Amino acid sequence: MTPLDDGRAPNSEPSTVSRTPHQDSNQPLTSPPPPCGGGVCQKLQFVALDILHQLKEQGKTKLVVPFGREKNNVYKSTQNIARSVFLMDCILKLHHAQATESKRDLYYQNTKLFGSQKSVDKIVDDIACSIGVSRRHLRIVAKCKGLIHGHIQVRLQNGLIVRVSDDHKTILPINPNIDTYAHIDVTCIQFVLVVEKDAVFSRLVQLGYAQKAKCLLVTGKGYPDVATRLFLSRIARENPHLPVLCLVDGDPHGIDIFLIYKYGSAAMRHQCDELAVPTMEWIGLDVSHDYKQFGIPMCTLLEMGVRETKKAQKICDQMIPSDEACVQCLETMLKMLKKAEIEALSSMGFSFLSDVYLPQKVGNILVNRMLQDEDE
Question: How far is residue 357's CA from residue 294's CA, in Å, rounded to a whole number?
Answer without folding.
Answer: 8
